[in-house]
């Protein structure tokens, strides 16, 4: 029985990854680490460990002690900071990982550099400007407000729509950056402004092995967890999502991955937002780790976390799904804090209209 270590196991993305593994035909022994003890209590794990953050010189030794004590066969890092560290220092870890090359991970973690790289490669991306100064903000607004009455201002690094806000004036943008400078340690140089895209938002989850696309599936984010309470009106974590099968989304997702990796290997989760004309534009790649709701597709019959672990262990897949659109369209995943989750097919809603 394979023994799996999940890092960042106190997070909801790790929880859902663990949930997907529990659906697999293969039994796993799963242990977890986190830098905080609180939410580890919510995870069903064979063992739980507190470790220092990756910025601590003792991180590698702590992870390797867990690997040795628990006889770990495979390590899955879920938080971006651990993905980045382990991609660069995988030779120091005493168990296999299944991660993209370190250069691809570093590129994807810098959203401005990523945008420029994809644009140069001919992949559709929103127009974007790095904001190093107030003058840059003035220039970006003058250019981007010609495209849409709003501009998307966000931090260059970080997940969960970090420091994101739609703005339509210099006053708003400068005040937003001032807030983050005063309270959160970000400043000019840490932000980018991009074309505001008013269309649908898609999340394309894909699994690759030594340059070959194993399988992929897209979903549309319809509503967001507490999106009504955030300044931007959204987050990257949906409360309602549905499967979609669109050739243009598949094409954009695959093109984006091939643009950042000469030989894609591991998990690449591509975010896209559509223009007013419904053309998908790639906004970022969550590289080396799964989207938060990886268990959505697993409950629908496409268990990509299980396939990822099997390939990471060096095993051949028992069955290989189609490369594109293995699930039917219009499967809905509905979830909410303290309420759990449910998979619903279009036409099978339990509510009655009056």
TrEMBL record:
GO MF annotations, alphabetized: ATP binding; metal ion binding
Keywords: ATP-binding, Nucleotide-binding
Domain ATP-grasp residues, every copy: 115-313
UniProt superkingdom: Bacteria
Protein name (record): Carbamoyl-phosphate synthase large subunit
Source species of the chain: Amycolatopsis cihanbeyliensis
